[in-house]
Amino acid sequence: MSALLIFITALLLTSLIIRWHFLVLKNENAFRKKSNLILAAAPIPNRFYCQAQIESLPYPVRKYFSTVLTEGQPYVKNTELEHDGYIRLNKGTKWTGITGHELFSTYHPEFIWMGKTTWFTAVDSYAEGKGSLTVRLLSAVKIADLRGPKIDQSELLRWLAEGVWFPTALLPAENISWQPVNENTAILNLNWKRQFVSVTVRFSADYTIHTLEAERFDEKGHQQKWLCELSNYKKHDGMLIPETVEVKWASEREPYAKFKLRRIIYNQKPN
């Protein structure tokens, strides 16, 4: 009888492991499929940065682009990056290690990010005007699936803030504009798919961006002040970008995320 019980238990465990493995592969394939759609977007015009583009911009914004870009810099078409870091799953809890893999379309606002901790996998995305956030336990069991207008706005805002990693996307364009505030502050606006988001940008003495501030919806759907603090600027493919980011809500003393860029790849090749 005990042998039969052991056999049945082993059979059930094997079945669960196979099912778990199937779900993990299914979710990984869905991530790759969506990533490929972003990377295989419609042909993007070949464009190159020049100083004449920024002559009418607010003073600190002109200095920023002159600092982080060089004359003739090709526009980035899409970007892939990996990062390490730590997050707090809840306020006041200990830090949890996380790794992330993210792909961006930089011509149109689209991205997909997968973050992995020991126990959870999260996928954040924005494409065709729609945002989503999905969280799975052990990369398999869905425990959160957030969608709707508030998520759309939050994810579009994330793309805009992360534009510091591909700064040609922040140059003035049909949907991108800058407003002056003072000698070290400006407002960055994005109007896309009938959605409007803006970020208050604060510049350092060297005219790199050190803080981004915006009104963003949290995971409970409440809008509050959201802050990104940027540091450790390094050159990558001719562009000066931050390698360290800390993210927090203004209502909390401590950040809820700390990310360190590990690798970034740009597609700037002519069609």
Describe the overall structure.
About 25% of the residues lie in helices and about 45% in strands. It has about 270 residues and is an alpha+beta fold. The protein has a single domain (about 1-265), classed as Clam (outer membrane lipoprotein receptor (LolB), chain A). A 13-stranded antiparallel sheet has the order 6-5-4-3-2-1-13-12-11-10-9-8-7, sandwiched between helices. A hairpin with a 2-residue loop joins strand 4 (about 120-125) and strand 5 (about 130-135). Mean pLDDT is about 85; it is low at about 20-25.
Q: Given the structure, what is the number of helices? A: 3
End-to-end gap: 69 Å
Work out the helicity level.
10-25%
**Secondary structure: number of strands:** 13
Query: What is the approximate shape?
Result: globular
Runs with pLDDT <50, length 5+? Answer: 20-25
Quaternary organization: single chain
As a percent range, the share of strand residues is: 35-45%
- What CATH architecture label applies? Clam
Q: Helix/strand-derived class? A: alpha+beta
Task: Indicate the topology.
Blueprint: H1 2-39, H2 59-68, E1 78-88, E2 95-105, E3 110-116, E4 120-127, E5 130-137, E6 141-146, H3 149-161, E7 176-182, E8 185-192, E9 195-203, E10 209-217, E11 223-236, E12 239-249, E13 257-267
Antiparallel strand pairs: 1-2, 1-13, 2-3, 3-4, 4-5, 5-6, 7-8, 8-9, 9-10, 10-11, 11-12, 12-13
